[in-house]
Amino acid sequence: MVMEDSPDGPVLRKHLLRALIVANLALASYYISWRYLFSINWDYWPMSLALLAAETYSFISIWLFGFMLWRLKVRRNPPPSMPGAEVDVFITRYNEPVELVRETVRAAVAIHYPHNTYVLDDGNSRELEEAALAEGAKYIVRPDDWAGHERHAKAGNVNSALFQTQGEFILILDADQLAAPEILDETLGYFADPKVALVQTPQWFYNVPKGDYLGSQAPLFYGPIQQAKDGWNAAFFCGTNAVLRREAFMEIGIRYYARDLLRRLNVALDAGNSIVASAERHSGTATDPEVQEALRGLRASLGQARSRLSGGASAQEVTWELQRTAEMLAKPIIERELTGARAELSSILTDDDENVNQSFDPIQMDSETVRVLASREWSPLGALGSVRGLLQSIDLDVWQEAQPVMPMATISVTEDFATNMRLHAAGWRSIFHHKVLASGLAPEDLRSVIGQRLRWAQGTIQVLLRQNPLTMGGLTVAQRLSYFETMWSYMYGFAAVIYLAAGPLFLIFGVLPVRAYSSDFFIHLLPYLAVNQLFFAVVGWGMPTWRGQQYSLALFPTWIMAVVSAVKNVFLGTRLNFAVTSKTRMAGSDVRLVWPQLAVISVLIIGALIGLGRLAFGTSQDGVAILTNVGWTCYNLAMLSVIVDALARRSRVPAGLSHLGTATLEVAQATARIGGGRR
Q1: Helix, strand, or coil here: 459?
Q2: H or E segment and range at residue 200
Q3: Is 541 helix (H, G, I), strand (E, B) or coil?
Q4: What is the pLDDT of residues 395-436, one digit of tens each?
């Protein structure tokens, strides 16, 4: 049975929000058009054009955000639970403390709906195994097949467990997430729709101090943003506190295995043709009719294989027949020559094994290998042996993967994001259930926060570069824009640098990025800014969003580093420094991590003082321009002050995790229903 979607939220809020979206986009278009046509200051054209580029970035962001929020969906009561379903609860663990995981296991075992609880331990801890079994859970580690293969972090851990369990539905929890007893009762009913692949619930953290000075809670994301994405069937999978349909994940795992196998075969066919062409140019070929005939036969077989693939033949069948043909053609020549290509081929195919790392997915790995093969000069015998070796290496299981089918995507450090996109492209649905049903631990120091946000941003940019939603088949237009909006937001670091530099450049050096701060400028700018702020106030609808806005600007070096490192990873193979987010406060100073922000704060203060000094001593003839830039500088200082606050304060860890289970969840559900909960 396909369930009916719940109606949208309150009529007043919906219509007010849509009216503000239209007004905001209209005023933004009015302002940016004027900026392009009438305000560029060609006397200072580098900064003037740079500021215009930053404003254009923001203009595109506003359009993407407004489009996404047009269909904000507020689900009311969840559908009735699904009786008799077989459910597995996965608790993923890397190196978190055993006592912390024990509390998570206790909460998971206490879930009301019948289920099996599994601890997926990537740390292979005997102590944790004993604790898990004592609490009534089962314990899973990766089998020996994973030894010597790329582990793929959390994605690999989950992928391994999927082949060791059999539940129809899977609740995934991070090692610190304490689940509410009713979490399955409130989410399984959505799966009455056979096309629903996952139901995501919010993340909420019980160790966040008053004021949330690290910006850990994300009320805007786990509220209006996820609800808006839900309205377009683009709700995000966030890696934890989500219930998954096994069938959906296994389907995309098999689909991408078959796709990569086909791509690998096409790469091998291309390389085979290059190798045969090289052998035909070899000096010994012209005088050896038997070799000429073998090469012609191999070239014809490669062409036939390509045609059969285009005609819909299976990759397995084509590969097997081509391997048999290559072996038949090579056998008499090998017997005659008594030398061979086997040793030559072996040395090449195993060359540079030490350089293999997680930055190469299977098809990239193959491309690098065949590039080396195809660029060499080949003897006829070496060519025949090499083509055979290429065909034998096509199966993913032969290369660096411990298991050929990977349901959770392994192309990014944010495996949940990449996997979610594949699910939507395959026609599956996702649901956002707007109620806190699990609570966990947030990072407790600035170092951990920056590392976490860096990983999120790096992973998102990796997905953009490897699995671009704008070109990926199967997604709707709305889904493409929804994914791209999130990816686009991580480019903000570059625009932020320009926004931060504009004020000091004028106050200190007199660089004017617009023609003049005239009445025309304010007539175009101020209405847009006012409506924009009103728009975000209505989007938030009473929830605290200021801290999130501060960190969006204050972490500009992190966003820039993420983009640069992800680009280097994808195109140059540079390894990302991956670390699991610490659940306890890390020792050491965080000052070195935020020196760019502290340097910018110093420059902003100097610029403001110089500007006010010029105004006070009457050395400037444009008081409006100075006051405008001093005001803008003070706003930026207020935004960056969150970094100073985070450095000055220390989080207090709640005393004893054992007292936080039921009480914390009751408080979460009663008072922290994000954005006021369901309305």
Answers
A1: helix
A2: strand 196-200
A3: coil
A4: 544 456 889 899 999 999 999 999 999 999 999 999 999 999
3-state DSSP assignment of residue 245? strand
The number of residues making up the chain comes to 679
**What is the distance between the alpha carbons of residues 140 and 602, in angstroms, rounded to a whole number?**
52
**Within 13 Å, how many C-alpha atoms sit on residue 385's CB side?**
21
C-alpha 237/C-alpha 232 separation (Å) is 14
Tens of pLDDT along 263-296? Answer: 878 877 888 888 778 777 765 666 678 878 888 8
- Cα separation, 633 vs 507, whole angstroms: 10
User: pTM higher than 0.70 for the full model?
Assistant: yes
Quote the tokens at residue 346: 């072996």
Predicted pLDDT at 359: 38
d(CA 382, CA 195): 51
Q: Are 567 and 425 in contact (CB under 8 A)?
A: no
Q: Measure the CA–CA gap between 278 and 281, rounded to whole angstroms.
A: 5
- 140-174 as b/e: b if 16+ CB within 10 A: bbbeeebeeebbbbbbbbbbbbbeebebebbbbbb
CATH superfamily, with its number, for domain 87-252+413-445: Spore Coat Polysaccharide Biosynthesis Protein SpsA; Chain A (3.90.550.10)
Question: What residue segments make up the domains of the chain, in order of their start?
Answer: 87-252+413-445, 253-398
What tokens appear for 436 in the block? 């806190």
Choose among 187, 182, 227, 179: nearest CA to 204.
179
